[in-house]
Request: fold
Amino acid sequence: MTDRKASTVWTGTLFEGSGETSFESSGIGTYPVSWPSRAEEANGKTSPEELIAGAHSACYSMAFSNALAKNETPAEKLEVSAVVTFVPGTGITRSALTVVGTVPGIDAAKFAELAQAAKEGCPVSQALSVEITLDASLA
Reply:
């Protein structure tokens, strides 16, 4: 079992206030957050959705890499992105994964099959209760 810790210190109201999120386990830094950076333009600040997108893209790339290796078609490179959509007043509505892979020795059908299985098996995918989409293609 592994635990990771991040924390946020918030001051002020939701709309006028701001906070700083610190990644304590890794020590990689502290990043500013605010409502406008979440609901409007980022303006050099992060948001919960961007943090989830980072977690989802990293987790999915690990899961898919493992699935390809187990298939004896290891990836040379996987380029994975996640776009997490936030609708003010509604919440997080989806995470859209995109993967482009350089994978010698695999056909498009098997690539798509393993990509889908990795999406379903990724622990971050399992943690999200929103729609998770996937666009997978070979380079």
